[in-house]
Amino acid sequence: MQEKYIVSVDMGGTKILASVLNSKRGIIARQKKPTNITSGTKIYVKDIAEIVKKVVAASKLKRENIAAVCLGVPGSVNPVTGIIGHAPNLGIRNYKMKSELEKLIPYPVLLENDVNLGALGVKSYGVGKKSVNMLAVFVGTGIGGGIIINGKIYRGFNFVAGEIGHMLVQKNGPKCGCGKKGCFEALASRTAIVNNIIYDVKKLKKKSVLADLIKSNQRIKSGSLKNAIDKKDKVVISRITEACETIGDVLGSVCNLMNFDMIVLGGGVIEALGDFIMPIIKEEFHNHVFDAAEKGVKIVASKLGDDAAIYGGLALAEEFLGVKI
Known about the structure:
Elements: E1 5-11, E2 15-22, E3 26-34, H1 41-59, E4 66-73, E5 76-78, E6 83-87, E7 92-95, H2 97-102, E8 109-113, H3 114-125, E9 134-139, E10 143-149, E11 152-153, H4 184-188, H5 190-202, H6 211-215, H7 222-230, H8 234-258, E12 262-266, H9 268-288, H10 291-294, E13 298-301, H11 307-321
Parallel strand pairs: 1-4, 4-8, 9-12, 12-13
Antiparallel strand pairs: 1-2, 2-3, 5-6, 6-7, 9-10, 10-11
Helix pairs in contact: 3-11, 5-8, 7-9, 8-9
């Protein structure tokens, strides 16, 4: 019998990343291309079909080796119908992605929210292998969450469970990208941290090694924040510490509710700043969580990086196709 693989596609806001992999050999080929959302959804779907064909060609596999194409969508998804409810960064709303993409490629198409895929990847192929009830939280431009209950992804009634970034943390707090005020990600994401640093430098005239980047309106990424911490930048350290304390408080509250055995933190901020921020998050979690809920819970950083969602495609294929790949 021929060895089977999947194509896992990360539908990012800036790039489309496609990988060919299976559980035995891991990732054997990758292709990426810039995301083009200005030309409309039909062109975007054609771009996905094109990169799928390219990455399969690069893998040197035959059509029959590919069991499925799994899409990680940055937005709300119904994985049963294959319809994207709303992916704001891609300008997609109520779109039959599965059926439209299957017209262009000769493989079954599966869809899942990208953060849910990340949680599945961590559970099946990362630090969460031994976990039964796990929360995965990814901190980057925003904050996303994926919930594993009894070893399986929990999607909720309308397939939107895990939106931890939009929990209310501060009534009438800063405005979130979702349009509401005081959301978790409006207070503790990289976007929130950077906005606060810019405020301190521009409005309060505080000194920071990031001042030149701010003055020239350059994007401040996680690597720049790490560099500032390494240089003992007081403004950056203060704002990141503040965000970490918020993260610890929220995780404590969620653990009180759900009694997870493991909380896994991932995303660009954790990858770049983990050594600095994980101890702060853990301490604040300890200060806030109910004693009985804290007993035995592990808070760890993901080690899969951007590949968490890619590997999650394998778990998705197993769930919907009934085959371990």
